Amino acid sequence: MARRESHSHHPHHHQGTHTRFEDEQIEEATESSNLEDPMCDADESTIGQDKAIDDTMCEPGESDKDIARSFELDDSVIGSDKTSADYYFDSYSHFGIHEVSVPLWMLSFSITSVMHSFYNYMISVEMLKDVVRTKTYQNVIYKNKFLFKNKVVLDVGAGTGILSLFCAKAGAKHVYAVECSHMADMAKEIVEVNGFSDVITVMKGKVEEIVLPVAQVDIIISEWMGYFLLFENMLNTVLYARDKWLVNDGIVLPDKASLYLTAIEDAEYKEDKIEFWNSVYGFDMSCIKKQAMMEPLVDTVDQNQIVTNCQLLKTMDISKMAPGDASFTAPFKLVASRDDYIHALVAYFDVSFTKCHKLTGFSTGPRSRATHWKQTVLYLEDVLTICEGETVVGSMTVAQNKKNPRDVDIMIKYSFNGQRCQVSRTQYYKMR
Ligand code: SAH
Predict the structure, then answer these.
(1) Does the pLDDT of residue 230 top 90, yes or no?
(2) Atom of ligand 1 at shortest distance to CA of 127?
């Protein structure tokens, strides 16, 4: 079985993937994104086929909303109810089970400003070097200048200002680049050095608190996606900006985001990450194993590990959705394409820009060129022995944590009635 390249929970500083991106940067990524690569089984892949990415692909079964309503995480089942904010003040209780290097939760606003700017710097590097990500935005903007001509743009979470610079170069009338971190100071300097001070106004502050000098904008652009699409994401900030400033026929870039699920064989890594705790230098540390099981692992999955089809769980229309739509329950049906074992489910997302001349976007799936989002691995309690054609059915519920909306609670129900193995179970996961 092919091995994954890296295994840190928070991959921003992992050398393994760095090398990979550097190799790939040599080749000029002229066409945007990684959509030329097959994203998943053709029948379930949406992007790159048709402009229409709609909910009909979701194979809805039971009423999503009913299940979502009944989904309340029970702390007696899943342990403590700490959020990432709590962990900041009680760092020992944050297990960081999966060999965390630098936890993203440190980016929470309670952190000291020195650390804040350091992490922002690190993360900016990682994001800018993510060629799939950055080049897709660049191509969307440069190849669709008609969208930007004489338009007022709002860049939500501008970071270094890179997206604002793209928009200015594409002919935008004015760009407001809003950034709450110290990176805003850098962005100001970058804008100036590159001669765009008259077109781009960098504003330091939270989108939710800033006073824009204009009442309306024509375009909102943002790179808001988190791990598992929704972990520590800025979606609510984008929706806030949309509702406050976007003109009636204005556009949001990107405007579609979809979450997918597949199943993998992962014996070696499950052994290393989970079963490891059964006997550590001869001692039973299986209480930590329980925590490790509940913490989704952000990691690169080799496509050869994939055992089933890829199921579309949910498509979100950023131009229309309500904040509550990011919490949902979606059914899944995973059909084995070969005889194998299943150790984990794997989630990933894609985003697309449907207002472009030619549908553009990128996928973070295991069959596409790697991005810094990697994939999200959710280990199963059971090892499923599955035969070709057999099916695992279930549902995934995704909910914002009530205490800290940047944390994500996940519930997976699955049942499998195979020739060699029968199992039915509910598992809970927390991303924090
Ligand atoms: N647009 C840049 C950076 C994207 S990362 C790029 O594509 O490279 C998201 C940025 O949003 C981070 O720099 C973060 O500090 C900023 N951010 C997060 N929440 C914000 C908010 N509520 N208001 C303003 N900026 C925010």
Answers:
(1) yes
(2) 8
